[in-house]
Write a structure and sequence with these properties.
Elements (H helix, E strand, L loop, with lengths): L1 H19 L1 H4 L5 H9 L2 E5 L5 H11 L3 E5 L24 H12 L4 E5 L8 H6 L3 E4 L4 H13 L4 E7 L2 E7 L7 H4 L12 H4 L3 H20 L8 E6 L4 E6 L33 E2 L4 H4 L4 E4 L3 H4 L8 E2 L18 E4 L5 H11 L5 E4 L2 H7 L8
Parallel strand pairs: 1-2, 1-4, 2-3, 4-5, 9-13, 10-11, 10-12, 12-13
Antiparallel strand pairs: 5-6, 6-7, 7-8
Helix pairs in contact: 4-5, 4-10
Length: 379
């Protein structure tokens, strides 16, 4: 009797599985064999944020047997505009914990490996080695290179996605002898020179569009079907409603996958200097050098500017700053200046409250700057 009941439970589970995945089974390129292949597959998703949300949900719904989630962050209210795997009640909780719960709720037959840690040189290769495909959903250049390098060294495909404002990119690196991330972007931009989504913003729905594309590529890789985006970079322009493709080839001079590679192991991420917060300031003697890459935001009132203006400065009086925030670009770096360095501190704090992160103030104001320049008349 017990054996009969056990057999019945197995058969029932089988029938339920067939019903759950029935729309996959109807596709000739997937079918029963493909679904079984998915159920036996393992995918590692690095980053449980805007891109990771749709990737995790679609891979879970598709029946990918084991899903690893890497993220060391907690849910913040600013995440909710695009990270659809989280809800308001999740604020403050570990992202991997919440994402794991959502994945199990979507599909209880999927095994989840939550890794609440930073994807770094010490863990990269070990994590990548345990999975069949890696989906890079990070937003830091240093981590992207680390994911790419670990995948190439472990012979694992790297499904890449990125978003910023209205623009998105998708590709697959290291697939079947194809080019890697370093073939397309040999060197990383200098730390701190390229803004993140937190600094420049991102259209929430773009995360879903690009994340769905990335999940699609991961599915094709696991199923071994279709034309994988290897050697092709898909560029999404959500504002203009355009999708275009850029072809690129494996670089024989690539430092990682070229003929004579010089990178033979994962390299620790360089420390990224953060723009100072609070009252940290730019010294007057450093202002000229800073303005090669930053914009001077002059918050003096009109009558004060009659005493002298630095060429190229953006002038918005402090009394108008609240109403004119829309004129500023949060992706740019601003050095805020006033006459003696007091009002600029208030302006920096107001900008930070509004979501600007790349802002500093000029210590001592333009009066102190003028004292270091004989050719600048300011009283």
């Amino acid at each position: 009797m017990a054996e009969s009941a056990a057999s019945s439970d197995v058969a029932l589970a089988g029938r339920r599985a067939l019903r759950r995945y029935s729309r996959h089974l109807l596709i000739p390129e997937v079918g029963l064999a493909g679904q079984e292949r998915l159920l036996a597959s393992r995918a590692l998703v690095v980053g449980a944020g805007g891109l990771g949300s749709p990737v995790l949900q679609y891979l879970a719904a598709a029946g990918v047997g084991r899903i690893g989630i890497v993220d060391d962050d907690t849910v913040d209210e600013t995440n909710l505009q695009r990270q659809t795997i989280f809800a308001t009640a999740d604020i403050g909780r570990a992202k991997v914990e919440v994402a794991g719960e959502r994945v199990r709720a979507i599909n209880p037959h999927v095994a989840v490996d939550p890794y609440r840690l930073r994807f770094d040189a010490g863990t990269a290769r070990e994590l990548v080695r345990a999975y069949d495909v890696v989906v890079d959903c990070t937003d830091r250049f240093a981590t992207r290179y680390l994911v790419n390098d670990a995948c190439v060294l472990e012979s694992k495909p790297d499904v890449f996605g990125s978003i910023f404002r209205f623009d998105g990119q998708v590709s697959v690196f290291g697939w079947d002898g194809g080019p890697c991330y370093r073939c397309l972007f040999p060197t990383a931009p200098l730390p701190g020179t390229v803004p993140t989504c937190a600094e420049g913003g991102v259209l929430g729905v773009l995360a879903g569009i690009v994340g769905a594309f990335a999940a699609n590529e991961a599915m094709k890789v696991l199923l071994g079907i279709g034309s994988v985006l290897s050697g092709r970079l898909l560029v999404v322009d959500a504002l203009g409603g355009h999708v275009r493709e850029i072809a690129f080839e494996r670089d024989p001079q690539c430092a990682l996958c070229g003929r004579a590679p010089t990178i033979t192991g994962v390299v620790p991420e360089p420390d990224e200097p953060e723009i100072p917060a609070g009252d940290d300031a730019v010294a007057p003697e450093r202002l000229d050098a800073m303005l090669r890459t930053a914009t001077l935001l002059d918050v003096r009132e009109p009558h004060e500017r009659a005493l002298g203006v630095i060429e190229g400065a953006l002038c918005i009086p402090a009394s108008q700053l609240e109403a004119r925030l829309h004129e500023l670009d949060s992706a740019k770096t601003y050095v805020v200046a006033c006459r003696i360095g007091q009002v600029s501190r208030w302006a920096v704090q107001r900008l930070r409250d509004a979501g600007f992160r790349r802002v500093l103030h000029l210590h001592g104001g333009l009066l102190a700057y003028a004292l270091t320049h004989d050719d600048f008349s300011f009283f």
